[in-house]
């Protein structure tokens, strides 16, 4: 085994999704940096997650053929070629180490038998799909989002297991291109953590796209049949299909990283606990070890499983590694689902708000002139304010382009802009953004 002192870096980054930004920024700031990546430099988002799913959703919206949509998707993901991104890393001065990294002792990572030393370690290993405990699921044809977003085949009959963001986006994709989609969700509605109107309106849309929704039932058993597979449900029913797309959640990728040797004990569901500076919480003895620091960013922290949140945490890590203390604030991290119409929620959800006296008001997009112009009256926006402080703390919307016209609400929540100022903001006519004005006025009157 090579001596770790021979291959020593100021900073080692494990995982090249959000981790690649950290590596490049720190290298540009003059640190010696190595990035360890076991799959593709760039992480999941550009190749297996956000980008291919958004490309397929766009193609579905435009009524393209499946073949065209797949060709376009594969162009968007550069046919899974990470050479240009790896070259960008090299240009920034980052050494890219291909392979799976794991900690062997404080200050040392091992990749395929070679040891590398570090002063700062950043763990950015992302998350992985959870395979639900359904008897027989391992014996029938299944996909996770990885296959659903890279394969060229269009299953004739597809069961989508789970009605979270992955299940909703991919049900709309496959139903739009002609698969006979049945979505099974254990909760009573889609996107169950959000305001109820969101899941209800989205369910109407998915049904309109052609999907059959089985809400409030879970899968109990799967078996192979002559024509494909059969999935049994908790309500006594069953569904016959050719394939199951598992979209039943993800968990932080923390297994077999040797984190315990660094005094880090991640919760398998919550991931690596970090403080406000994104420094990993370690045992007292590990802290006393001194000399090295472990940071974490992205899905592995369980903080907010979105690329924009991972990128935000990356900026927090970079700043703190460079000695400029910066604290993360998660009050206004958007949660968008890019179906048509789009779901955009941010801040507190009325479903889980505790310890706040929430004021709420809402408005149907059908009442905006823009809905007439677009000939599309789908959607609604609701805003939630903290009565005690007179500021917005949460928002939920579903509607065309909601990811655009709701961003001002993200700023309002983050900046704690008083309602008295928000009610004085002018929106262009005719935009869906005008829907926000009556909601704000109603909230201000309730104060
Ligand atoms: C289908 C789907 C669609 C999504 N769409 C969106 C979207 O539209 N918008 C959005 O904001 N978010 C979306 N997300 C979530 C988004 O993909 C993640 O939040 C984001 O990729 C997290 O970035 P990350 O850097 O933490 O992890 P990742 O992107 O997963 O990167 C982690 C990297 O670490 C590598 N790695 C793991 N272990 C090791 C190891 N031991 N050694 C070396 N390398 C290792 C992995 O190979 C991987 O490349 C979507 C997710 C899915 C599944
Ligand atoms: N647009 C985006 O930003 C975007 C898109 C896709 C995914 N993501 C992120 O990726 C992560 C994973 O998304 P996801 O949708 O897989 O997870 P999720 O945890 O959000 O949803 C999974 C759903 O599956 C259901 N479920 C679990 N087991 C079941 C069973 N046996 N039978 C029936 N239903 C079952 C759960 O009740 C839950 O509603 C999320 O954190 C999400 O935020 C983001």
TrEMBL record:
Top-rank taxon: Bacteria
Domain FAD/NAD(P)-binding: 9-311
One Pfam family from the record: Pyr_redox_2
Coiled coil: none
Broadest EC class assigned to this enzyme: oxidoreductase
Pyridine nucleotide-disulphide oxidoreductase dimerisation domain ranges (all copies): 333-437
Cofactor: FAD
Keywords: FAD, Flavoprotein, Oxidoreductase
SUPFAM superfamilies to which the protein is assigned, alphabetical: FAD/NAD(P)-binding domain, FAD/NAD-linked reductases, dimerisation (C-terminal) domain
Enzyme Commission number, as recorded: 1.-.-.-
Gene3D superfamilies linked to this entry: 3.30.390.30, FAD/NAD(P)-binding domain (3.50.50.60)
GO molecular function: oxidoreductase activity
Record family assignment: Belongs to the class-I pyridine nucleotide-disulfide oxidoreductase family.
Protein name (Swiss-Prot/TrEMBL): Dihydrolipoyl dehydrogenase family protein
Organism: Actinoallomurus acaciae
The organism's taxonomic lineage, starting at the top: Bacteria, Bacillati, Actinomycetota, Actinomycetes, Streptosporangiales
